[in-house]
Amino acid sequence: MGIQTIKNERALQIKFSQFTLVFVFIPHQPEVVLLEGDTVLASTKNESNFTFPTGRTVTEDLLKKIPFRKEWIQSIATYATLWMRAQDEQALGLRKQAIAKHLEHQRKSFQKKIKSLRAESEQNELEPDWNYYGSLLQIHFHSQPKAIKDEGHFYYELMDFEKDEKILVPVDSKLNLKQQLERYFHLAKRNKTRTFETSTRIAALEEKLTHTLKAQTRLTEATEISALLALEKELRLVEQSFSHSIKEQKKLVHFSGKQYQSEEGLTILSGKNLNENLELTFKIAKGNDIWLHVKGRPGSHTIILLPPGKSASLETLLDAAHACILHSGGKDWGKTEVDYTFRKHVKKVKNQTEVIYTHNKTLMVTLDPARMKRLFQ
After folding, report:
1. Which of 90, 115, 131, 163 could lock 188 by a disulfide, CB 3.0 to 4.6 Å apart?
2. Residue 104 phi/psi, 5° resolution?
3. Crossing angle for the helix pair 177-221 and 76-125, nearest 10 degrees?
4. How far apart, in Å, are the Cα atoms of 61 and each of 5, 8, 66?
5. Mean pLDDT of 56-67
């Protein structure tokens, strides 16, 4: 029947034929009251009495200081349009805050991991040149050099004919000459592998960091909800927030291997080397996640991350099998057998880097170009 405001107060009356609905937006706890005449029928404060706020007298000088937007009261249609626009702006702001928080966490995580790996790389560079020691010992192997002790440490004193100087080569007193030679080359190979894998992981993380920094720039420039939706889809924020806890998302951020998404929205992870395989299988995967490996060959560990109570379809298994074959170097193998089982059935062989698994089933897979194109996109 009518709408009335109380002068200079944030209070509103909506009148019906026999009822009055009153909204009082001050003080800090708003109140809504339904009246029939002077009788309180309902109140958000559960009070039986209600007193209308009295209007305030505001001086002309104070009125001039109060912001007033005439366009808000031109018509109901104008008000509705402006209100919806304000709601959209608020929603846009909240959504940008959520994405910004996610990207900032990613940036810090990548930078922290890169810093740690660079320190590890510098440590590798400080190791002795084991290959040089092995080559030097090979030259003098026939002369059966004897170890000498100096300040509690054992050394071979070997002549480097190119440098024309004697070199002290560290010795393990428990090993014979042949074992010592093998150990030098083993340590050289190990250090080379570590250096290569560390540099590979750094490069992968730097690529992800660059992608994150670009996404932060795009987020700053985004002014439309469509741009945010595209960014969310690219970052897979919707799927991750649905299927993975915060703790699991942190693990995914640190993982330097490959990440894919199946058509039904499940995350597929593949290791590209020994360290990534072990990290993926024994640190990231849970017991009921699905673990895949090419049958009878060394290669990639691949995991399908499953939310509680969810299983993987055949299509997702085939997606994961494609990733597993490709990262095992099987692009040209043709028809290939891929075993899969639950992660809880995979065990690490003691004192070795190999694993054994049970309760497995086998897929016979021939790589499908169309599937690979969709998966990698």
Report:
1. 131
2. -65, -40
3. 160
4. 22, 14, 9
5. 80
Per-residue b or e along 32-46, where b marks 16 or more CB atoms closer than 10 Å to that residue's CB = ebbbeeeebeebeee
**DSSP per residue, 165-226:** EEEEEEE-TTS-HHHHHHHHHHHHHHHHHHHHHHHHHHHHHHHHHHHHHHHHHHHHH--SHH
Q: Tens digit of pLDDT for each residue in 24-61? A: 887 667 899 999 988 999 999 888 888 887 777 778 88
pLDDT at site 240: 45
Cα dihedral 364, 368, 373, 377, rounded to 10, equals: -20
Listed residue (208, 190, 353) closest to 281, CA to CA: 353
pLDDT of residue 263: 78
Q: Give yes or no for a contact between 51 and 58, defined as CB atoms under 8 angstroms apart.
A: no
DSSP SS3 for 42: strand
Cα–Cα distance, 299 to 327 (Å, whole number): 7
User: Residues 185, 191, 197, CA angle at the centre, nearest 5°?
Assistant: 135
> For the segment 92-110, what is each residue's pLDDT rounded down to a tens digit?
787 788 888 888 988 998 9
Distance CA 62, CA 37 (A): 35
Residues 166-200: tens digit of each pLDDT: 999 999 988 999 999 999 999 999 999 989 999 99
Higher pLDDT, 145 or 264: 145
Residues with Cβ within 8 Å of residue 275, at least 6 apart in sequence: 197, 201
Instruction: For residues 151-170, give the mean pLDDT.
Output: 90
In angstroms, what CA-CA distances link 273 with 117, 125, 253, 303?
A: 16, 21, 18, 14
Mean of pLDDT values over 291-295:
94
- What phi-psi label fits residue 358: left (phi over 0), alpha (psi between -120 and 50 degrees) or beta? beta
CB 33 within 8 A of CB 14: no
Q: Cβ–Cβ contacts within 10 Å for residue 360, how many?
A: 16
Domain segments of the chain as ranges: 2-68, 86-235, 257-377
Yes or no: say if 312 and 236 are a contact pair by the CB < 8 Å rule: no
